[in-house]
Amino acid sequence: MIDTQRRKRVMQRSIALGHCICDPKKPCPCDIFKQKNICLCAGERMDNPTGPVALTQLVEKAGCASKIDQAFLKEVLGGLSFPENPHVLVGVPAGDDAGVYELEDGTCLVQTVDVFTPAVDDPYLFGQIAAANSVSDIYAMGGTPLTALSVLGFPVRMIPDQAMADILRGGIDKMNEAGVAIIGGHSINDPQVKAGFAVTGVIDKDKVKTNAHARVGDVLILTKPLGTGIVAFANQIGRATPESIAASAKSMTTLNKTAAELMVQFGASACTDVTGFSLLGHLAEMVRRSGLDAELVWDDIPLLPGVLDYIAQGIFPGAIERNKESCGKAVLSGPGVTEEMTDLLYDAQTSGGLLIAIAADSAPALLNALHQHQLPAAVIGKMIAGKGMIHIKTTGQRTMHAKPAPQKQPQPQPQPQPQEACCCSTPATQASPASNGTEDLYKQFLSAVGRPGGLDAYTKQAINIALSVLSKCEPCLKIHVEKARKMGFSQPEIDEAAWMGIAFGGSPVMMFYKSLSEK
Predict the structure, then answer these.
(1) Active site residues
(2) What domains can you pick out in the chain, each with its CATH number?
(3) Which of 447, 513, 449, 509 is nearest to 481 (CA)?
(4) What pLDDT, in 10s, does the model give residues 103-143?
(5) ω before 410 within 30° of 0 (cis)?
(6) How far apart are the first and last CA of the chain?
(7) What is the DSSP code (8-state) at residue 52?
(8) Backbone phi, then psi, for 215, in 5-degree steps?
(9) Secondary structure (3-state) at 248
(10) Phi and psi of 193, rounded to 5°?
(11) Confidence band (pLDDT; 50, 70, 90) for 453?
(12) Residues 415-419: what's their mean pLDDT?
């Protein structure tokens, strides 16, 4: 069943931006919506297809937003069984950051793999981020990473070969900074670039940190600011500032190594790193597995520069909707917390920080140590008694930025005129003597249909052009094209609207439009 309110909310964002929030290279409505009446950005699903499918023709997501959403992943994994093994201390059912396997002497292996698409333009920088993100899962468990295997998808001969070398070089340099030896890897010829690493580390059995042992009264500390997904999307559509791009890159390339060492030193109760499932997605797992609730103070959560400006402009990537679908039922917003404020916390993070739960009396010392190492950590909330819910509140100290006026508005007409749904209706002065109440009611109906409502006047005028072409009504088309030009339509926009009608009407309709265009 289609959630029409959700679809409307998501598509309004895309239409207002002039970019599909799932694929900024495409307009909204996209071809999938026009052909199948499905909005993927709103979480709607197509029937499972059979045979080969080219997924890269359907979606374009940056960084950890390219991950499969949490709800869908749980649905698939829920139908699988994993044989029990007494040596596996943390496995797939735990849904934690990495797996932990106990060896005979009490030492444990901690293993993870992470692969995603670029969140930045520069190949070398992307390689660094891929390495920092992959090794972060080991740090989140309190482990020491030792070795890594590279995983790379690259469109051979489609982009310069040097880009592949730069991605690998960036990964090598960042893993070297982490003290990790790259001992091999795997690569595939893939039309979409993606990179990551499978990482193996070690940890003592009694020092394993999971997301399941937070305690009532624990303080929640986040070690990096949020907003990498929003900044990446803003950059894709040409709306990000150099300052926010640089700050996001610095954050994503910073290792969680020092933060992990300090959280172990100060006796953290639980930990997870914040990546593609968002702050709320990862925290939802922590509260669920700990059997507690969490309280977040929205104003205290650190944000990257420019993020509030992007929110005001309506720049919300599609991953926000997928994360909201996955864990939104566990989130409760308090008085004054707007939808935009909450949506920010669903932003998919690439190489995000650690989310640490630690006793209140130990938190100040840990926070001070993190700051001494130039890490922008902050206390963002606390664990409270409950059964797996997240409560968001605001103190009102952080002010949301005002939304700018829409970039493109229909030009006002000199005099308000009744809107006609059929542009070649008989004028009132030439009405037939047979005109009656039924005809008058019909004209009122047509006028109501033409007025702005759920769709704005600009969108309705484009629809008028498409329908005029589809019905091959020459007088209709001439009048609606003239109206469109007065409203500020460019010729390419008029042609695009016309081709919507041609797409449904076929060759006869195309010949009709071409014959009129050539007059």
Answers:
(1) 64
(2) 1-48 (no CATH), 71-393 (3.90.650.10), 453-517 (1.20.1290.10)
(3) 513
(4) 878 788 898 888 888 888 888 998 999 999 999 999 998 99
(5) no
(6) 47
(7) -
(8) -125, 155
(9) helix
(10) -65, 135
(11) low
(12) 45
